[in-house]
Design a protein that fits this description.
CATH architecture of chain B: Orthogonal Bundle
Helix content of chain B: over 70%
CATH class of chain B: Mainly Alpha
Distance between the termini of chain B: 57 Å
Largest sheet of chain A: none
Number of strands of chain B: 0
Shape of chain A: globular
Number of helices of chain A: 6
CATH topology of chain B: Helix Hairpins
Number of strands of chain A: 0
Distance between the termini of chain A: 62 Å
Strand content of chain B: under 5%
Number of helices of chain B: 3
Radius of gyration of chain A: 21 Å
Largest interface: A-B, 89 and 73 residues
Oligomer: heterodimer
Shape of chain B: elongated
Number of domains of chain B: 1
Structural class of chain A: mainly alpha
Largest sheet of chain B: none
Order of helices and strands of chain B: HHH
Radius of gyration of chain B: 17 Å
Structural class of chain B: mainly alpha
Amino acid sequence: MIEVLVFAFFAAVAVAGALVMVMAKNPVYSAIGLLTAMFAIAVFYVLQDAHFVAAIQVLIYAGAVMTLFLFVIMLIGVDKTEDTAEQIPYQRPLAIVVTVGFATVILIAGAQAWITGSNLFEVDDLNGTIETVADALFGTWMLAFLSTIFLLTIAAVGSIALAYYSGPGEES
Amino acid sequence: MILTAGWYMALAAVLFSIGAAGVLVRRNALVMFMSIELMLNAVNLTFVAAGSEMGLIEGQVAALFVIVVAAAEVTIGLAILVAVFRRRSTANVDELAALKG
């Protein structure tokens, strides 16, 4: 029962944070809204015994990624003057109608497809400690793990190359 | 009432839709990036929920890989954004129309 209460509370927090992120004029408020939603999602991971993923969520997302976002907001300045003039007429109302319809269809379809009985597969509870995650990560998924090394190296080299780029008016 | 994976998936669907609305409605490239991050987070939630329902650790492994890819994507995306801002002094995607025919 307490699990359901915790889920309901943090579900409300996550949805509120997401809505603040989309609606806030000031990008700093958007970043804080996303940070709130990410902390709430970390709570859901703990509820499902995915402790290591929850720790990574807080460290990487709430720590590193959001700090990077706030640094970039600081670099390029807070732009509150997002114009409401439409390049394509009716694009915004149409976008909202499409997304609400999308969510409704997913929830209706999911209500019939998603597992609603408890423990249908009759499995033991997972305990997502570092040890169990590492057994899978460095066993079956070793090749996928190694390929992330290439991904991260390419991303680091790419961002350094982009930082060295200079426009026509700038000294390199 | 028992908390099943379906509830987490329903919440993830709602969060994903809010993120998709953010990408479609906002014009600030930074906020569009944050919306994409929210969508990736929602998908992670379904991975972990499905994994714990079926008793497979692979759900959590997939979530970890998604986090790695998202971190790489944010690095490149924000570097591009800063480079564009240095040249054009705007983060509004409507004003970046140099390739318009």
